[in-house]
Amino acid sequence: MRNKAIVLASGGVDSAVTLGIAALDYELLLMHFNYGQRTERRELKAFNDLAGYYGISRRLVVNIPELGGIGGSSLTDNSQSIPEGVYRDKKVPSTYVPFRNGLMLSFAAAWAEVQFVKHIFIGVVETDVPGYPDCSADFIRSMETAINKGRKPESRLTIHTPVIKLNKVDVVKLGVKLGVPFELTWSCYQREDAACGKCTSCLGRLEAFENAGIEDPIEYMDD
Amino acid sequence: MRNKAIVLASGGVDSAVTLGIAALDYELLLMHFNYGQRTERRELKAFNDLAGYYGISRRLVVNIPELGGIGGSSLTDNSQSIPEGVYRDKKVPSTYVPFRNGLMLSFAAAWAEVQFVKHIFIGVVETDVPGYPDCSADFIRSMETAINKGRKPESRLTIHTPVIKLNKVDVVKLGVKLGVPFELTWSCYQREDAACGKCTSCLGRLEAFENAGIEDPIEYMDD
Predict the structure, then answer these.
(1) Which end of chain B is less enclosed by CB atoms within 10 A, N or C?
(2) Measured between CA atoms, how close is B207 to chain A, in angstroms?
């Protein structure tokens, strides 16, 4: 029998490839968060489409509008605009959502304990978003330590980050190799009908597909 | 000007005394979680009554029914009964809610970052609930480390646990000394009208007041 694992899936490229990797060896449970991000409904559709593709019935969608409600991020605060252009700065970008990954990992740890799951997968990419403090390997290890101290001793778990050291081009190439259905994913930060092709997330995605020599199968506004 | 601090307040004795301590030195923000516990409404009233007493207007109530929804605790799962009698076992009791404190601290860390707050207070008592893994000093320090690695570098914060090493009798005595309004608090795990006086939480509270030589000002069913 396969071991069970929870995969945190936003529905974007990184989490879809992480899901594709986890699906090779584990029986999966899939988890998603709505936190008041602008493209919440579209992301949720991508999550459910991916879950359907991989035949995963155990899904947990957590609604925490309060995370968006406290502000501090252009992803959730409509009075801020989403940055356009490729992000090359070293500063924390405005799209950073305060301690989002810590919160999601904490919730996954709670669900894992109840479901007797010892493995959590999260698609963080350290090199891709240098400014996001909650995407570093150092943070993930610290969080794993804290989780293992703060739950029942027999629940010890491991957090897997299979794409953390890859650049986005290699994430895309790996996804193609694994047959990840990129047509079901969603990355745009600001639109839900067709991807804008202008925000930092769209541009990072388009650049990665182009450098990988692969056509991005989703629809863009300019098409 | 006083430094700001966020206090996590369930509305029980430990968090009320922690609030009383924090109020001596800090300008306060107050945070509460509804997670599908049986006495959710009564706890929320205690939280708001305490906030009113201390004149705290910045309050954040987070609703995460999904934490109760995943099960695993007699506090949130109505098919399990709340244990009665004083809890003296070393095992994790059925009232343990999976990784609740980790989740609450993660959310407080997010709010703290947005509000430029560097101090969080949580009323965990290590000796009082030996079986709760997320109440240990070791866990709290690990969580503080993880939080500080996973947020903006300039947001570094400290988690304060002023009652963690006290026994409940000393928590009550300290509260009286500080003028904590115990009449506004709520501890019962199973009733919302008058405290049952039988569940582990009521009995632990009653025993602490009795050993402190102080009358518990809240109403019990047997009164």
Answers:
(1) N
(2) 27
